[in-house]
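Lab meeting, item 3. Inverse folding demo.
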């Protein structure tokens, strides 16, 4: 954290009182379930691997004002019992997107900031159901976000 950021945080505390502590909280990384739940979203689901680019993927976005730790986040689907952790990065910075693919995809050119992988068949190895299902993200045993899609999307 640079000196200017620290100064702005302390000035907010001085001018506006303890209620401005959230200004200071906007620096750093979040990993708590409640904070991540309100900030991490599945923004795109590509369930048909026969369409371009030739593999299935989902894209997640960090809408928080700071980075989110993703090393403990699991991805799962309603059609299976497996959940898998994200591999490839430990955090997603504020405003960044990440493409999540199976481990059979070595790189992605979808325009996301990051490429994360899973080994589970929830996404990997044609795991996304072409007829639709519900995908979810889980942290500390709690579902933090879920999104349902249909094969018509």
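The presenter then showed the designed sequence:
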């Amino acid at each position: 954290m640079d000196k200017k950021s620290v100064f702005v945080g302390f000035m907010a505390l001085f001018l506006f009182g303890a209620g401005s502590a959230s200004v200071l909280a906007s620096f750093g990384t979040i990993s708590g379930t409640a904070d991540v739940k309100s900030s991490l979203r599945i923004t795109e689901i590509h369930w048909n691997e026969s369409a371009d680019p030739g593999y299935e993927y989902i894209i997640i976005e960090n809408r928080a004002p700071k980075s989110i730790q993703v090393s403990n986040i699991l991805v799962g689907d309603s059609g299976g019992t497996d959940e898998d952790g994200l591999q490839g990065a430990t955090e997603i910075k504020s405003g960044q997107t990440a493409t999540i693919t199976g481990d059979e995809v070595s790189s992605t050119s979808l325009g996301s900031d990051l490429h994360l992988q899973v080994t589970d068949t929830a996404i990997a190895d044609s795991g996304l159901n072409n007829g639709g299902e519900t995908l979810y993200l889980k942290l500390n045993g709690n579902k933090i976000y879920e999104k349902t899609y249909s094969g018509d999307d």
